[in-house]
Amino acid sequence: MGLEIKILDYGDIELESSFLVLARDCGRTRRVPVYGFLILGGQYPIVVDTGYRDNAIMETLGMRGLQFHENMIERQLANHGVKPGDVRYVLHTHLHIDHAGKDDHFSMNTTVVINRRELEYSVSGLMHPQYPKHDIIHLVERLHHPGALRLEDLEISGPVELSPGVFLEAAGAHTEGSMNVHVDTDEGRATICGDVIYDFNDQIIDPVHSFGPEEYQVTGNHGNTKRQEKGAIRKLMYSGAKFLLPIHDKPAMIENGRVVGRLDMAIPGPVSQSVPRRDWFPA
Q1: Beta strands, E only, 79-234
Q2: N or C: which end of the chain has fewer CB within 10 A?
Q3: Cα–Cα distance between 100 and 39 in angstroms, integer?
Q4: pLDDT for the residue numbered 279
């Protein structure tokens, strides 16, 4: 039996639109969800990303956090019959402020798994203050508790199978140490892709300020080159994954390098919206 993914709703963020998609609606505010993921069906539950610490911390980036009681990670896990103490691994696509703020809600018996390059990058200052002090200090504390932190070297090792049906791979985009998490489900591979993709419609389906098909638009928030960002998106679109799951948009179903449908809060799950093919050129 394949694994399944439940989407955890950690609340919303209000932020400037072009932060999400380069040059889109500059100066206008957008409200986006912040999701995490619960992988079930294996020997033990696995969580991917833990959301932001609290509403106040988002103000350090000039953003507004909209996190309420029902969005607390304990409540979100409880919706699926899981307690923090049941979770064997917490995986991080990367360590930005809205992804790694609740690691201290898990005991040192739960192993946090990150790409080593991401931990190095988090203290480099290159994307300060997107790596808050309290979040990173907690990870350093885990470094000194055997078994509480696991570091991968994915750029060197290539993909790693963490547990049956769960694979980690360097993303090559967004931050220098971002990783994708591949999950084998009964309906095909699902890839949790962090912030390599923020917005399917305006980056991929009908990319803003683009000049042709598959000339994907990049986000307005990345630490690599635009060439690397575009290449990483293309790699995802043609990776063979049937589903792509970003952190700030609903999942998408992928066929032959294009988005054909959108899903809701579980993978596998029903397609809630079909996506017509974009005709770039006249017949």
Answers
A1: 89-91, 111-115, 149-152, 160-163, 166-170, 179-185, 188-194
A2: C
A3: 17
A4: 61
Q: Distance between CA atoms of 181 and 194, rounded to whole angstroms? A: 9
31 pLDDT more than 50: yes
Q: What is the pTM of this model?
A: 0.96
| Domain ranges across the chain | 4-264
The distance of Cα 264 from the centroid of its chain, to the nearest Å, equals: 15
For 52, list phi and psi in degrees, rounded to 5. Answer: -100, 155
Per the CB < 8 A criterion, the answer to whether 37 and 47 are in contact is yes
In the block, residue with structure tokens 């575009």: 230
State the Cα–Cα distance between residues 103 and 105, nearest whole angstrom. Answer: 5
What superfamily does domain 4-264 belong to in CATH? Ribonuclease Z/Hydroxyacylglutathione hydrolase-like (3.60.15.10)
CA dihedral 222, 225, 231, 237 (to 10 degrees): 10
Tokens matching residue 244: 């792509």
pLDDT tens column, 64-122: 999 999 999 999 999 999 999 999 999 999 999 999 999 999 999 999 999 999 999 99
DSSP 86: G
What's the pLDDT tens digit per position in 160-218? 999 999 999 999 999 999 999 999 999 999 999 999 999 999 999 999 999 988 999 99
Strands 64-66, 46-48: pairing is unpaired
Beta carbons within 10 angstroms of residue 33's beta carbon: 17
Q: Which residues pair with 13 in a beta bridge?
A: 32, 65
Judging by DSSP bridges, how do beta strands 243-246 and 4-16 pair with one another?
Answer: unpaired
| Ranges of H-type helices in the chain | 17-20, 55-58, 73-78, 116-122, 133-143, 154-157, 200, 226-237
